[in-house]
Specification:
Length: about 375
């Protein structure tokens, strides 16, 4: 199935609205039974719990020789899908992963500082406009960490980009034509054991809610009876213990209440300290993310970064540029930067023809505000 062209999601959205409006008592009962089942499973011993846990093999759909093939679980022969036919059995309620061909999406790879691991999505999206012909509003993107260089203190991040229109069309065609709701869209990779990379180009708003698998009426009834018996046993034992040791229970309750009060007080104090620390870090003009965003916004067109090292208040960046002579002037024009200089000679890259540069950029340290009520003479002293 091709994933090119623009799509219209109105039909699929109308179907979802109809499904939402037709929620009946039966659907609510299924949700209640699913919750009740999880409560009962949590009370059982570990060996029983493993046998009762819901297992949903991840189903995949992939185009093979012009035909869509569905695999309900790894190692099982694929089932060809027929438009308008019955939806095959064995599909998890969480949906199906659609595996695109390797050339159906744009992939790019970057090396980032290890400290930026928690911000890889934002950092890769910031560089998207300068490295690709797309913007964030034109594509669905996902970034994953694929490797780590401990010696260089860097991580290797891979990002996949696909046009939003093509993804929307694919989701609608699978739902309208085959009755299959996609939970993820990934890229094929024969080198991986699962046959796919591990991306999810489907935005969170289009992913179906994960629900636990259903059970037969007999199993549900058995769980209810077992749960009732377990709760009755606990209640009878608790009643006997209260009758025998009522005074001890009151004392223990008072001690527990005092301990809980002290613990709550400690948590409140720690929470206040954490909030104050977080507020200070967010307000810091030399925080890593603010510094990185400043560098990215000042970088002239035709220039891009390969390495980024930050040790407050100095940033050392390495990259390629079509005209490196304008870099120092572009950075020094910012009020937040104290100065910029080349840390090594500019050389021309033999592969790209661009100029390879290494810049040392120093940011201005923030100063505490001066109390205007103090006379100038006292301030100088």
């Amino acid at each position: 199935m091709s994933v090119t062209g623009e799509g219209d999601r109105d039909t699929a959205r109308a179907g979802e609205d109809d499904a939402t409006s037709s929620v009946s008592f039966g659907a609510k009962m299924r949700d209640f039974l699913a919750w009740w089942r999880q409560e009962l499973v949590s009370l059982t011993p570990g060996g029983w719990r493993n046998s009762l846990q819901t297992r949903g093999p991840l189903a995949t759909v992939q185009e093979v020789d012009g035909q869509l093939v569905l695999k309900t679980k790894p190692g099982v022969p694929g089932v060809p899908l027929v438009p308008g036919g019955k939806t095959p059995r064995g599909i998890s309620r969480a949906g199906v992963v659609y595996i695109l061909s390797e050339d159906a999406a744009l992939r790019r790879e970057r090396r980032l500082p290890t400290a930026s691991r928690a911000h890889v999505q934002n950092i890769m999206n910031l560089q998207m406009a300068s490295d690709t012909p797309f913007t964030v509003d034109e594509v669905y993107a996902d970034s994953i960490v694929t490797g780590e260089d401990d010696a260089a203190r860097e991580i290797i991040v891979s990002q996949a980009l696909a046009p939003r229109g093509s993804i929307d069309v694919l989701v609608d065609e699978m739902y309208q034509g085959y009755g299959i709701r996609l939970s993820a869209i990934d890229l094929a990779d024969r080198a991986m054991p699962t046959g796919r990379v591990g991306f999810n180009l489907l935005p969170p708003s289009m992913r179906p809610a994960v629900k636990s698998g259903g059970s037969s009426g007999i199993r549900i009834l058995a769980f209810i009876l077992v749960g009732a018996a377990v709760f009755a046993g606990f209640a009878w034992r608790d009643l006997q213990q209260r009758r025998i040791a009522a005074a001890d229970t009151l004392i223990e309750t008072a001690e527990v209440g005092a301990a809980e009060a002290m613990e709550i007080s400690t948590r409140v104090t720690q929470g206040i300290g954490g909030i104050e620390k977080l507020a200070a870090e967010q307000a810091d003009p030399l925080g890593f993310l603010r510094v990185y965003n400043t560098i990215a916004s000042l970088l002239p067109d035709g220039s891009w970064l390969e390495e980024f090292a930050y040790e407050r208040p100095t940033v050392i960046v390495t990259g390629l540029s079509g005209n490196s002579a304008t870099l120092v002037e572009a950075f020094e024009a910012s009020d937040a930067i104290a100065g910029a200089r080349f840390a090594s000679p500019v050389v021309r890259d033999s592969q790209t023809g661009a100029e390879r540069f290494r810049l040392e950029i120093t940011f201005k340290e923030s100063r505490p505000p001066v109390d205007e009520t103090v006379p100038a003479a006292e301030t100088e002293q």
